[in-house]
């Protein structure tokens, strides 16, 4: 920490544009993120187009805001969540994520040590994902105007030539693959809120998926659809695919990987794990002929070691998702209506 920087909590002066704000930015953000694009402290990050073109021929951009409550939970925190969420949104197009922004809205009185811990988490997560946080913004608001800390991140990546992944490309006969257990993040947030007296702690699945996606693409398979199953969960993502592609999708309940702890929380609260948020799970729809090699590539990668095939794409019912139950029957799996859990990400 800079020797110019003192104080235990954020004050309104830290957002006023003067010396206190500059000291905060230098001590917490610039020293931690530490890269040439950021340290110049211009109002924008600048890049050579030729450097970007080496990765592909199309730009991918995304943005998201994070308001999770609580800020810290088993296996992660709001900083890790912000980085992985934005990296994953880029990766789902097949893009190579490169650069992130970081905008923070901080409540007056927020502990400096907590802010430092969150920023360090963002740095570690960005380094592990191979991306840089290159520009940002800090706003401080009166106590009560936000709940402790909100983060906005935007991301830029490059899509390699020949990659065409879209939600409207699911085809009859395709298979549905997920890279592991369902509902871990949503269950971890419930656990962290202390509303249930659980004997075991559920950890978030929060992780960057860009490396896994690149391993899948390296097989040469034509991946038709990809999406990370965040708010709304697996059921909502599959309904979006079915509607965009004009197909039906059938899931096999027996094939769905759900941890016993997550299943127990869902039973206690009347929730369905298929609608719980995930922060490290992707849904892939690929041609049946490519499924086994894509699955093998996923299982060989740390973020995909628990990958399984969970369903198939059908001609009917158009725009609908069916769940084949353990008793041999079928029921419609609708898109999430309303909100199962607030402030989940």
Which residue ranges are poorly predicted, with pLDDT under 50 across at least 5 consecutive positions?
none
Strand content: 15-25%
Per DSSP E runs of 2 or more residues, the count of β-strands stands at 13
Would you tell me which CATH topology of the largest domain applies? Answer: Phosphoribosyl-aminoimidazole Synthetase, Chain A, domain 2
Characterize the biggest β-sheet.
7 strands, mixed
Say which CATH homologous superfamily of the largest domain is assigned. PurM-like C-terminal domain
Protein structure class: alpha+beta
Give me the Rg, rounded.
21 Å
Q: CA-to-CA gap between the ends?
A: 29 Å
Q: What topology, given as strand order, has the largest sheet? A: 8-10-7-11-9-12-13
- Mean of residue pLDDT values: 95
What is the number of independent domains? 2
Helix proportion range: 25-40%
Shape: globular
SS summary, helix count: 10
Helix and strand run: HHHEEEHEHEEEHHEHEHEHEEE
CATH architecture of the largest domain: Alpha-Beta Complex
Text of the CATH class of the largest domain: Alpha Beta
Protein topology:
Layout: H1 19-33, H2 36-39, H3 49-53, E1 58-66, E2 72-73, E3 76-77, H4 78-91, E4 96-107, H5 112-129, E5 132-141, E6 149-159, E7 175-178, H6 184-192, H7 210-217, E8 223-228, H8 233-245, E9 248-252, H9 260-269, E10 282-286, H10 291-299, E11 308-314, E12 321-324, E13 330-332
Parallel strand pairs: 4-5, 9-12
Antiparallel strand pairs: 1-6, 2-3, 4-6, 7-10, 7-11, 8-10, 9-11, 12-13
Helix pairs in contact: 1-5, 4-5, 7-10
């Amino acid at each position: 920490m800079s020797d110019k920087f003192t104080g235990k909590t954020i004050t309104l002066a830290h957002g006023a544009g003067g010396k206190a704000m500059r000291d905060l930015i230098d001590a917490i953000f610039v020293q931690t993120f530490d890269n040439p694009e950021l340290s110049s402290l211009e109002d924008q990050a600048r890049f050579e187009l030729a450097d970007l073109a080496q990765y592909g021929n199309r730009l991918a951009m995304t943005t998201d805001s994070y308001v999770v409550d609580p800020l810290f939970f088993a296996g992660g925190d709001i900083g890790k969540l912000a980085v992985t969420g934005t990296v994953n949104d880029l990766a789902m197009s097949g893009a190579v994520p490169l650069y992130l922004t970081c905008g923070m809205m901080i409540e007056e009185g927020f502990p400096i040590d907590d802010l430092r811990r969150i920023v360090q988490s963002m740095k570690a997560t960005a380094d592990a994902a191979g991306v840089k946080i290159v520009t940002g913004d800090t706003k401080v608001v009166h106590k009560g105007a936000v709940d402790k800390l909100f983060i906005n991140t935007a991301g830029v990546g490059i899509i390699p030539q020949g990659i065409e992944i879209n939600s409207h490309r699911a085809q009859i006969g395709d298979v549905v693959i997920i890279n592991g257990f369902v509902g871990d993040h949503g269950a971890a947030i419930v656990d962290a809120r202390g509303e249930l007296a659980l004997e075991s702690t559920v950890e978030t699945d929060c992780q960057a998926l860009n490396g896994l996606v690149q391993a899948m693409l390296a097989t040469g398979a034509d991946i038709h659809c990809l999406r990370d199953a965040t708010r709304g969960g697996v059921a909502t993502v599959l309904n979006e695919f079915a509607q965009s592609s004009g197909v039906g999708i059938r899931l096999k309940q027996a094939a769905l990987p759900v941890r016993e702890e997550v299943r127990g929380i869902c039973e206690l609260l009347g929730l369905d794990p298929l609608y719980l948020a995930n922060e490290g799970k992707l849904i892939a729809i690929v041609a049946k002929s490519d499924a086994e090699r894509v699955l093998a590539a996923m299982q060989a990668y740390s973020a995909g070691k628990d990958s399984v095939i969970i369903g198939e794409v059908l001609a009917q019912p158009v725009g609908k998702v069916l769940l084949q139950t353990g008793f041999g029957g079928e029921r419609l799996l609708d898109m999430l209506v309303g909100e199962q859990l607030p402030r989940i990400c």
